[in-house]
Backbone:
DNA sequence: CTTTTCTCCTGTATGC
DNA sequence: TGCATACAGGAGAAAA
């Protein structure tokens, strides 16, 4: 569930509660949480211990703590990951996979992840502030280096569906299924329209809407981090009532009143308005079945 | 090379 | 009531 706004809420929480603190001990449980850390969980725990957290950064849905200014502890929340700040004597969560203790005897930092799609890894920090392990991810729409003209140009060259492009983290990062549907609803574009069949101004508008809807979600999720608790689910749940497309099948379109529909696309659910977002003409659909 | 499908995981909701 | 099945979905590996 966590997309860019929810991850940003967590980053801000880490900025408030973890940056500046000295890690004395890390406990990694199981093999899966550090599966992206090639050297293994023990190596990760050893190398994190004794460092000071100097920054909390993010690109798209990737989050990382900068350690001693030159290494990054990559945190990906996956589907259900949470970073929790909890007193050390608080009961251990059922799906707690990592815990960090600090020299100040303040609260612990815990990584809790029910479905274990998330994980932790260590990666060298490049001179541009991006860890090597995040280099394959494109800038998100809020970064100064995000080049919308360039992204639109690359989209225009694609024969794939526009929703697929929005979800492609190597093209533009941070957008997931929910905000893709919201951006497409706002732009009145069906997600299965082929990128190349849309004009550059329309493609650019879709990206503008994606940026805007994520900015709005962020303003509403900004309070979900209280003194001792990082609540990722709380952030997305709070924005729920502002959604116009996602999960709205069967209800009237907030713009025109037509009955919102639900379709399967990329093995995911897609929500759209049949009147505002007409399906592409069959002469030019994405994902034409490929014959053997 | 690009593009698409498959796979990882578990709590919750639904159907019989 | 109990059991089986569908669903949620980010992203990387594998396949086309």
Residues:
């Amino acid at each position: 569930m966590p997309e860019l706004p929810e991850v940003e809420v967590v980053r801000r929480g880490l900025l408030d509660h973890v940056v500046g603190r000295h890690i004395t001990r890390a406990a990694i449980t199981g093999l899966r949480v550090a599966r992206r850390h090639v050297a293994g969980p023990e190596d990760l725990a050893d190398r994190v211990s004794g460092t000071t957290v100097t920054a909390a950064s993010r690109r798209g849905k990737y989050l990382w703590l900068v350690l001693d200014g030159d290494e990054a502890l990559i945190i990906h929340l996956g589907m259900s990951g949470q970073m929790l700040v909890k007193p050390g004597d608080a009961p251990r969560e059922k799906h707690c996979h990592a815990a960090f203790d600090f020299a100040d005897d303040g609260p612990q930092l815990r990584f809790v992840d029910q479905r274990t799609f998330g994980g932790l890894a260590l990666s060298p920090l490049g001179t541009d502030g991006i860890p090597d392990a995040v280099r394959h991810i494109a800038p998100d729409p809020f970064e100064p280096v995000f080049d919308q003209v360039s992204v639109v140009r690359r989209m225009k060259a694609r024969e794939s569906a526009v929703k697929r492009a929005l979800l492609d983290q190597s093209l533009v990062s941070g957008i997931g299924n929910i905000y893709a549907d919201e951006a497409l609803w706002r732009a009145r574009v069906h997600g299965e329209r082929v990128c190349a069949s849309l004009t550059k101004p329309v493609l650019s508008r879709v990206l503008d809407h994606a940026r805007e809807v994520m900015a709005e979600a962020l303003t509403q999720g900004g309070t979900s981090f209280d003194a001792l608790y990082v609540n990722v689910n709380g952030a997305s749940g709070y924005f729920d009532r502002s959604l116009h497309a996602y999960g709205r099948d069967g209800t009237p379109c907030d713009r025109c009143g037509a009955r919102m529909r639900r379709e399967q696309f990329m093995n995911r659910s897609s929500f759209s308005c049949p009147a505002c977002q007409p399906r592409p003409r069959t002469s030019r659909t994405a994902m034409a079945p490929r014959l053997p």
